Records
---
Amino acid sequence: MKESSVMEIGAAGLDARKIVADIQATVRKKIEEGAYADARIARAERTNLVNLKTDDQFLSFYLKCLRDSVFVDISDFEIRERRPVLAPLLVKLKKCIWGLLKFYTYRLWSQQNQVNGLIVTAIEGLDEKYSARIKELQDRLDKLEKKTSSS
């Protein structure tokens, strides 16, 4: 009997091993370039989903991640230019454009933050509701099992 993996990729003419090797090579290259130096990525790696053993652990972890990242950062950011020749002029131009667009982007971001917050609250509410209901049903089942086993 063939051992089944968690996920299999397959289709006619598709070399899954090559795809995985390409992904791994790309990740290695990006690590070397510092693309994954962000602390959040390191934290996610430390709490790798493979280490989560139960559905309850996964759901708790997922809800915590959702709570931590639900809101779009709408704070100002530094505008820089890597090209040294026209850098001062380009930075001024970009700041001018950002100044004109800031009002509209802030409105969109704040509306998105409201929607994201409501969605997370709804998901957490449903999780709490169904967890309580499952506990209640489990308690009832335990009582019925005790009752039938003592009869």
---
Amino acid sequence: MAFVMTAYNITIQQGFTADIIKMTWLSFPLTFVVAFTLEYFIVAKYGMKLVFKLHKNHHTSFQKRSLTALVFVGSMATLMSLFFSILAVGFSKNLPLTWIYNLAISAIFAYPLVVFVAAPLVGFVFRTIFPEGSIVDIAK
């Protein structure tokens, strides 16, 4: 997600060129470190608490996945849009408007990407590696 969203934000800011992959690849290490740190220490910690409060027993797996994506994408899009805005304009008077713009265009792209592409793909890979019933709870 971090790589795709980095490419998307660079494309939005600078237009579609042949150098998008190169620019994305060169800026990816810093973006990955920032995204991983924010997700691991902030979003996952507080986001999962919110997700568990919002999940209901009658929700389907798609509804649960969509709700989880909404919480995580909302949080990560907000924080990463701020990061990309600071990279683009620095701490200038244009920062708030750039942040709002980046947040709007990022969230519109990120939410469907997570719900319809990333989550099903990760679920498929996870279930291929660990078929249902193959993970044993050692606490029992």
---
Amino acid sequence: MAQESVVDIIHQLEKAHSQVESALEGISEDDLHNAPAGEWSIAEICAHVIEMGPMWMSKIVDIDNVHDLERTAKEIDRRTAEVTAHSSDDLSTIKQRMTSAHGETMRLVRLIDSVHLGKMTNLGTVGKAITDKLVAHVIEHAEQIKATRGSAN
């Protein structure tokens, strides 16, 4: 199978972002902030989606200096802080933040030389790390948002 290109990755990220946007269409503020027992609310899921794109892509852009792409303890703490800090954001704020974070993610993707997509990391190639750790995870959260809507009532 041919190695993916930066253009392929851009298309995959655009599609994943669109799936999250679609999952949020017509959502009520109650559904946004209510969570099933022991789960994140949709607002919290969105806060995580917002922080993860730029975080992963920053690491990948700096792949020559970052050899381990797994989240560090500091990055896990930052994720938790972001989820907590933005758990009460309204839908308009979430959508604005999501658009901004997606724009930053896409800016960072465009900095990657296609040659670097084949570079090996602890998570496989750079291209595989992007598709497995970012694209697939965003799609997973779009599905989680759909499943969570109305289930906390």
---
Amino acid sequence: MQKWLMAVILTYLSVLFFGSFLMMGMLWTGTLEKTMPFISDIEIFLYYFFAGAIGGSLRHLYMFCSHYMKGELTDYRQWIMYIFFPIFATGTAVVAVTLIQSGVLLIEFTDNQNTPLGQISIAFFVGFGFNRFINKLNSVSKDLFKTKTKSNDDSTDKKV
């Protein structure tokens, strides 16, 4: 991987990591709501989004630095993972919390009067373990939507 590309990736992941903390702080203090009043309508989802971004960028910063220190950043195609996986992790974190709150995934949160700390924590973990969560989600989806076959001769029922 070329040095300029490594610098871009490191800068991008750092901005995403620290910027997400900054945005969480601005949400928490109400600064964003003062400048953009519509934020209050989606505030809870933004907490999950930025928590997922923190988790995803933290993991990929760690992976990037680990691979750099071991001299393993030789494949130029790896840049796509460092750029896009943290982005995927943000949306996946929001979806994960929504699935849990809807009852599809069975995790219970304790009620906290001030903030949804449990949900934000789950969003962070989903962002951090994005690919593992996607693998589990894929497995659940296969089990949930699989079709049953009655016999090998019946051509109308096929496994998906």
